[in-house]
């Protein structure tokens, strides 16, 4: 599969892609190594600055790369990458370079050392905003400092993990904009 | 709409309902008041104990109820409640009792003071596990201490917020169980 052409995007709009709770691919680089991990445990925490929290288990190979570089890229894959997403989560970066293994393009980022995953629909470059819970709770709070989003498709058909090998695929889009107070939009 | 009949469920299986990232309704009670808030900013943080983190802005009426009671109930609504979910998010518990306003059943919980929202598909009673980030980051880390899940439908058709009044509705369920290593399930 080829890389998707992405355009610069406002960082405060990252919620549009992350808040629905998709499985993401988190790329990291440090110590001359790079890695990708599959992640379902993340949450938006703010718009401006644009904040995202991620849980990275301290036994994961990505933990030390994220902790030591204080950077990562959050990539949002579509359902067409589902088998790759699963396989990335079932091997370790200690044993294999996952970009090579899965023929994924490591696209240089603009502001961080970790590469974007070219085949993903959108990629958000992150710097560590608050590391106070890294040791105690494996919790990294990131600031998104640069956003890249493919213009087509307008929204990726994301996958959402239920555990036990089961996924929900994103369905219909509906608007309730007219029910919102203007200051709640 | 009537309350759904729910059964006790293993707490460590809550991820099945929460990890896909649905909009949830968080109910709280303290100081003789009760409230419900609509929330999209949450993440699973563990299985055993069964942990969930939520971001509750300190200007929300629910913030002080959650902080002072150190308890809440996380309720998962299906798409049939979407208009109510939006309307709950567009008024304040300072002005109105949301259970009354929206004709929702406040079902007594088993282990916490906050009520379940009867009309939701599943409800997870929570006690505060780690409050160290409440003041600094509006972040509550909860332990789910009792789970209630409707046996039918087997899975709710959840809604997932994109911001700007737009929602994604949960689509197809797919399994990739056979691609997983046994210890990754």
TrEMBL record, chains A, B:
It comes from the Bacteria. This is Flavin reductase family protein. The keyword Flavoprotein applies. Belongs to the flavoredoxin family. InterPro entries: Flavin_Rdtase-like_dom, Flavoredoxin, Split_barrel_FMN-bd. Keywords: Flavoprotein. The keyword Flavoprotein applies. One of its GO terms (molecular function) is oxidoreductase activity, acting on the CH-NH group of donors, NAD or NADP as acceptor. It holds the Pfam family Flavin_Reduct. Residues 16-167 form the Flavin reductase like domain. Its cofactor is FMN.
